[in-house]
Amino acid sequence: MRDTRESRLLLVLLIAIAFALITVDIRAGEESPVDGARQAAAAVFGPVEKGVSTAVDPVANAIGAVRDSGERHNRIATLERENAALKAKLGSDAQTQSRIRELDEMLKRAGAGQYGIKGAEVIAIGAAQGFSWTVTIDAGSKDGIERDMTVLNGDGLVGRVSTVGPDTATVVLANDPDFTVGTRLEKTGELGFATGQGDRALSVQMLNGKAKVSPGDRLVTFGSRGNKPFVPGVPIGEVVKVDPSRGDLTRTVWVRPFVGFSRLDIVGVVVMPPREDPRDAVLPPKPEAPKPTPTVTVTVTPSGSASVPGKPADE
Q1: DSSP readout, 41-52?
Q2: Disulfide check for 28: which of 32, 106, 209, 288 has CB 3.0–4.6 Å away?
Q3: pLDDT tens for residues 223-264?
Q4: Residue 124: CB atoms within 10 Å
Q5: Residues 7-30, buried b or exposed e (16+ Cβ, 10 A)?
Q6: Global pTM value
Q7: Which bin fits 213, alpha (ψ -120 to 50), beta or left (φ > 0)?
Q8: Residue 273: how many CB atoms within 10 A of its CB?
Q9: Euclidean distance between CA atoms 83 and 71, whole angstroms
């Protein structure tokens, strides 16, 4: 359109008409005479607006997602750190509780046997080469540890001290093939010698070939002269198999150790032997066998005056 006098007059006229329509529409409210035209325009341009909105919204959502992703990532990272810290705390608490139980059981055994002990922690295991079973503990000559002292834990006999340094010591475990300890059978007092068999049951040669031994019987240390390398009364293990007697002077039995040698943690070195042999006092009480539940039998005797169905009671 050319910029002429007529075009300017037409523009001013259209603007005046527009203001007039706006004024009429506002004053008329819901009964506005231009309402129909507005609805028709909405019907024509509404789908176009919706299409434009649909096309634009994903972009806006993507922008919002990118804007929020940093905050969301930070929240997830924070939660992951909190979960990791909680798991570590729970694991630490569980380990602490386990070690407290081990220490408590060891102190009970030491108290029952009147052993003076020095607590220590297993800090290393022996070399994988060869057949030796040894561990290193974090106590040495500075702590009063000497060679050929008995080592125990809350379950029973762990081994004996073989070498000592200023701050550490090496312990030969009771399942070492070169390890031998004198044994005494619970109650009967039958004597024998136990030898380590690695990860298998201990082999015990009973000095009496006719000794009465049964699976489930328990053994303790017999003790050594001068209480080195073994003090008396330390629990060793439980009989799991008895070889048949063939009239020999000795008899072989197989004993499962009370101690789990592959999971040692807290141990005690006996630095002061008992004044008297504790005999079987260090062994924990055997669990009582469950008592059988009595069976109640109820016998029903028919009464002579009972009536027969279908007949009078006086017949």
Answers
A1: HHHHHHHHHHHH
A2: 32
A3: 999 999 999 999 999 999 998 877 777 889 999 999 999 899
A4: 12
A5: eeeeeeeeeeeeeeeeeeeeeeee
A6: 0.64
A7: beta
A8: 21
A9: 18
